[in-house]
Amino acid sequence: MFVTRHSNVVDVALREKLWRLYRTTYISTAEATVTHEMLDQQEFNEQISRDSNRVWVVWCDSIPVAMTLVSTDVRATRWLSDIYFERHFPDRYRAGQVHYIVWVVVDPSADAKGANVMLARQALTAEARDGALLVFDVPEVHQPGAKGGAAELLFRMAKMVGDVELLPLSTQRYFALDFAKLPALEEAPEVNF
Q1: How far apart are alpha carbons 34 and 165 in whole angstroms?
Q2: pLDDT tens digits for 33-88?
Q3: Separation of alpha carbons 129 and 193, rounded Å
Q4: Residue pair 9/126 in contact by the 8 Å Cβ criterion
Q5: Which of 37, 87, 156, 190 is 20 to 30 A from 118 in CA distance terms?
Q6: pTM of the entire predicted model
Q7: If we measure between CA atoms, which residue out of 67, 52, 51, 53 comes closest to residue 14?
Q8: CB count, 10 Å around CB of 147?
Q9: How do beta strands 133-135 and 98-106 pair?
């Protein structure tokens, strides 16, 4: 196995290989998570073609088996609030050190531990060298509680490349009001607030 680093991926054959890896490894998360976790192919291509995004790929011969994308410009993502980071981490934000892990995918048929370690060593070493505040989010399916889960795994891998602290930033929960189980009302009831 070996690792490559990319930005501005425009080669069609490479895009297709990376898309297949992303789609096949992310589909189970998309099926288990209420949020828009998985990008469509157009969104995916847009992300891997940005100069401000770093794409790290672990290869087994000519097959990509693991990949992560790190955005180095929080303003260019639609997932994070630049206002939040400007307010809570003003020096890091102004220095361009707020980076975001957009995704990490590992083919389950690959040597997951070996691919994860290779990916982590390469990508996290670059982030540590930049002094990044490396933000990531994890859906509940991979992080059921505040402790353990994917956050703990990433924290342990980050400790392989340097001194690091894990900072919990926020929790978001989703709810639904399900009216399908109620009998249809002839008229809307009067509600006084």
Answers
A1: 29
A2: 888 889 999 999 999 999 999 999 999 999 999 999 999 998 888 889 999 999 99
A3: 55
A4: no
A5: 37
A6: 0.85
A7: 67
A8: 9
A9: parallel
